[in-house]
Design brief:
Radius of gyration: 20 Å
Number of strands: 9
Distance between the termini: 62 Å
Number of helices: 11
Largest sheet: 9 strands, mixed
Strand content: 15-25%
Helix content: 40-55%
Length: 294
């Protein structure tokens, strides 16, 4: 059997509501030489039964049933078992347009860059369109990603990467599952710049799951993520480090004050932001004040 061009990894936990629609969108891709690895992270619903039914009609679909270990480990296991020349991870509630993989592969071929991402559209829990801003495009990709100047929108359903980029030094970090999608993009960008395809090639589903406990985890894990970058010398220069830390500490402070009501913790992170880079701190705070008064 020939090696597939792309292995699609779909981690899922209790995803019966949207999973069939997500897999069908992969089946409709305009390139057919793919395989689809659904990694069932200990679901308690009908996830496994849905996949087993679809496998009977499409031999490209594989099912891995495993104990619940979290989304990062689930993605890693799927990547490790797959064999495609390229790897694309897809969340079990998002939808790819039919030419998503084809256009990203073509862009990588034309530019020689080993990973790609695209623009996107947004939908709600019922599949209805949501109007949101498009991603920011900037030069000096790696530094600006570290400094939170740009984002790879919805990265875990957006990115396709050459398997040659993945390995022990580029992997989903099981210690920071909440920001792991941003972390994987920073890991990839540390090795190579991506190509951006400015077309809306997929639909990112947004549905209400925001809770205080989740926000507490996000704040804690963002701090862990940037501590990792300090420890492992991710920052290419002192200026990038100071700007990045000032901005991320302010983001954490905002989560603590606005969402988790941990005011004391939020104030401590505001102080850390100021000491990391007073200019960035003051400029950001003034910008927020001006925005509120407009």
């Amino acid at each position: 059997m020939s090696v597939p061009i792309v292995s699609v990894i779909i981690p899922v936990y209790n995803g019966e509501k949207y999973l069939r629609e997500t897999i069908e969108a992969v089946q409709r891709q305009t390139i057919s030489n793919i395989d689809i690895w659904v990694v069932n992270d200990g679901s308690k619903d009908n996830t496994a039964a849905i996949v087993e039914e679809m496998m009977k009609l499409d031999p490209r679909i594989r099912l891995i049933n495993k104990e619940n270990t979290g989304v990062s480990d689930t993605r890693n296991q799927g990547i490790a078992k797959s064999t495609g020349t390229y790897v694309a991870v897809l969340d079990a509630d998002d939808i790819w347009e039919a030419d998503n993989l084809e256009k990203k592969l073509k862009a990588m071929e034309q530019t020689g860059k080993p990973w790609a991402y695209s623009n996107l559209s947004f939908i709600d829990g019922e599949g209805q369109p949501i109007q949101k801003e498009e991603p920011i495009i900037a030069s000096d990709f790696y530094k600006n990603l570290l400094k939170w100047e740009i984002v790879v929108p919805g990265p875990c359903s957006n990115v396709i990467a050459s398997r040659s980029l993945l390995g022990t030094d580029v992997w989903f970090d099981v210690n920071i599952p909440c920001p792991a999608d941003r972390d994987i993009c920073i890991q990839l960008a540390r090795k190579a710049e991506p190509v951006f395809v400015n077309e809306k090639l997929w639909r990112y589903r947004i549905h209400g799951q925001s809770m205080t406990a989740v926000n507490k985890r996000v704040a804690t894990e963002m701090a862990l993520m940037y501590q990792k970058y300090i420890n492992e010398n991710y920052f290419p220069d002192r200026q990038t480090r100071r700007i990045a830390l000032s901005k991320v500490y302010l983001i954490i402070a905002g989560i603590c004050i606005r969402f988790t009501k941990e005011r004391g913790k939020g104030i401590r992170y505001m102080a850390k932001s100021f000491w990391a880079n007073p200019v960035i701190f003051i400029r950001t705070m003034l910008g927020k004040i001006r925005h509120r008064t407009v």
